[in-house]
Amino acid sequence: MSAETVALAKGVTRREFLNYVWGAAMAVFMAEMGGVIFLYALPRFKAGEFGGTFTLPASSLPTPGSAPLANQEGRFWMANTDQGVYAIYKVCTHLGCLYGWSSLTQRFECPCHGSKFQLNGTYIEGPAPRSLDHFVIQVQDASGKVIAQTDANGGPVQVTDPNATLAIDTGKRIEGKRHS
What we know:
Low-confidence stretches: none
Number of domains: 2
Structural class: alpha+beta
CATH superfamily of the largest domain: Rieske [2Fe-2S] iron-sulphur domain
CATH topology of the largest domain: Rieske Iron-sulfur Protein
Mean pLDDT: 83
C-alpha cells in the first residue's frame, strides 16, 4: 500500500475536523451578520408616521393666503397660497431649528437665528442658505387615482376638488432653492 492510500483510509484528522468546524461556524456567523445588517438598512416607515405618508382631506386645508396649518406628527406645515398648496418641512435650513408662523408679520420666522420666509417657504432674509424644504404632495380623487402631484422643484399643487384627498410623503423631501 502506498502512503496516499493509508492516509485516505485513516479518515479526517483532528486538526482537519477543527478547521471544518471553525470554517462552518464563521460562515454561519457571517450569514447572520449579513442578515442583521440587511434588515437594519430596510426602511420601516408606516403611514401616519414621520418618514411615511400622511393623508388629509382637501376640506381641511386653510383658505388661500391665511395662516398655514401645522401637522405635528408629520413635521410639516400645510400652506395654501394663490398659486396652490405646499407641504413645508418644519425645520429651518440654516441650522435645523424649529421655526414658527408669525401671525403678526404673516411669515415664517426662526426664533434662534432670525431667518425669515414667505408663506410658500421662499427665503426673505437671515442666515439661512436657501428657501425652506418641501414634501411631495399627491392629490387623489375619491377612487384613489392621482390627479395632481408636486413637481420636481417643489412647486405648488392645485387642489380644485374639495372631496379630494392629499397624500403628503414625508420620505420625499425637496430641497429649497438656494439664494445668492
